[in-house]
Amino acid sequence: xxxxxxxxxxxxxxxxxxxxxxxxxxxxxxxxxxxxxxxxxxxxxxxxxxxxxxxxxxxxxxxxxxxxxxxxxxxxxxxxxxxxxxxxxxxxxxxxxxxxxxxxxxxxxxxxxxxxxxxxxxxxxxxxxxxxxxxxxxxxxxxxxxxxxxxxxxx
Length: 155
What we know:
Elements: E1 12-14, E2 20-24, E3 27-30, H1 31-40, E4 47-51, E5 64-68, H2 74-105, H3 107-112, H4 122-126
Antiparallel strand pairs: 1-2, 2-3, 4-5
């Protein structure tokens, strides 16, 4: 014997989350799901019924729409957005540092380094095989100075 009073089919109740439920032969269902199925047929897999105007109490077929459910959960998307934000920050700082270094080097840097947005001709940058390139005596390839540019990119 069932406990409590038996609820009549068609009875409606408002849940604390703002959704309206209706009692059916099989149990309690979201009313907007029942209305959708009555008007348009079954809800396809990987879809949900949403309210066009955002009002959960405006349950008429013309206010209902289907939305495809994403494959990845929201926490995963938040994590990816955060990683993208970090990478963009690193890239912006790297560009700022590159601009600063180019400014320090003056004309020499701007004439020998192509603009990063327009690229450059790789053959022209490498020079021809005929030309012998002499190392710059003012530059010590073993001297990296105090820290590296990557040290400036920490958060």
